[in-house]
Automatic annotation (TrEMBL):
Residues 190-284 form the 3-hydroxyacyl-CoA dehydrogenase C-terminal domain. This is 3-hydroxyacyl-CoA dehydrogenase. Residues 6-185 form the 3-hydroxyacyl-CoA dehydrogenase NAD binding domain. The keyword Zinc does not apply. NCBIfam families: PRK08293.1. Pathway: Lipid metabolism; butanoate metabolism; Lipid metabolism; fatty acid beta-oxidation. It is an enzyme of class 1 (oxidoreductase). InterPro entries: 3-OHacyl-CoA_DH, 3-OHacyl-CoA_DH_NAD-bd, 3HC_DH_C, 6-PGluconate_DH-like_C_sf, 6PGD_dom2, Mito_3-hydroxyacyl-CoA_DH, NAD(P)-bd_dom_sf. It comes from Microbacterium marmarense. The keyword Membrane does not apply. It catalyses: a (3S)-3-hydroxyacyl-CoA + NAD(+) = a 3-oxoacyl-CoA + NADH + H(+). Its EC number is 1.1.1.35. Keywords: Fatty acid metabolism, Lipid metabolism, NAD, Oxidoreductase. One of its GO terms (molecular function) is (3S)-3-hydroxyacyl-CoA dehydrogenase (NAD+) activity.
């Protein structure tokens, strides 16, 4: 399979913008699709903010490389236009199953035959919407972590029907874009990273909603006891509280449901989305 040079990212939110910018920074031809001009303008603002982040984080980069990456990214609210010559499409829409099914169903109608489809879902496995994608041999998961320029893991997970050729091409793409590919051998909800991380976050939220300890104490305990740089609620802020809400509200665990209610009333309804908005459990 040829090198995956033309990349379309579906969704210009916090992580979608990072995925797109990371690819552009490493020389890929990148288009970002989102539902309207307002969403695309927000994505453009995210690219511009990432310029200074990359300049600071990557001092050995070529002069002007960071700015050129932001300028090179194309934006479109027309799905067919956005994927017209895509080698790879990376879906980065909210963690809502019906939404992902619709996105891939719409995508399958307009994408070229050559295009590999990848989902960036952090909680779902690709076989949950493989039927909608319509190309089982060229459909898999490619999961990124937030703060992609530092936490540069890219988990590659296929289904039983993903071809070796498509899988290897996506692994190569990850390497070409500065990522450390994590080869997941079989479908696993949460992949490797979130299979380790989610139990920690769930335990922290349960301690919080049940009044065992406050946010600062929980985070302090984790940092001191393990030597970690961040506590679980600092991680929640980086991940984004909208994502935390979507995941928690879909759970049947009473503590998770209570946590989702708190996230909505005390944070989301007040415009506190985490690091992206400047405030979540902490102020930034």
């Amino acid at each position: 399979m040829n090198t995956l040079n033309n990349v379309t990212v579906l969704g210009g939110g916090v992580l979608g913008a990072q995925i797109a910018y990371q690819a552009a920074f490493h020389g890929k031809n990148v288009t970002v699709y989102d539902i309207n001009d307002e969403a695309l303008e927000a994505a453009r603002e995210r690219f511009n903010k990432l310029v200074s982040v990359y300049v600071e984080a990557m001092p050995d980069a070529e002069e002007g490389q960071a700015a050129k990456a932001a300028e090179s990214i194309s934006l479109s609210s027309d799905l067919a236009e956005a994927v017209v010559d895509a080698d790879l499409v990376i879906e980065a829409v909210p963690e809502i199953l019906d939404l992902k099914k619709k996105v891939f169903s719409d995508l399958a109608k307009v994408a070229p035959e050559k295009t590999i489809f990848a989902t960036n879902s952090s909680t779902m496995v690709p076989s949950q919407y493989a039927a909608e994608a319509g190309r089982p041999d060229r459909f898999l998961a490619l999961h990124f972590a937030n703060n992609i320029w530092v936490q540069n893991v890219a988990e590659v997970m296929g289904t039983e029907r993903t071809s070796n050729e498509a899988y290897d091409a996506v692994v190569a793409y990850a390497e070409e874009t500065g990522m450390d590919p994590i080869l997941v051998k079989k479908e696993q909800p949460g992949y490797v990273l979130n299979s380790l991380l989610v139990p920690l976050l769930n335990a922290a939220s349960a301690l919080y909603v049940n009044g065992v300890a406050d946010v600062e104490t929980i985070d302090h305990t984790w940092r001191k006891g393990t030597g970690a740089q961040s506590g679980p609620f600092q991680m929640y802020d980086v991940i984004g509280l909208r994502t935390a809400y979507n995941v928690s509200s879909a759970s049947d665990n009473p503590s998770s449901i209570k946590f989702a209610e708190i996230l909505k009333t005390e944070f989301l309804d007040k415009g506190k989305f985490g690091v992206a908005s400047g405030e979540g459990f902490y102020k930034y």
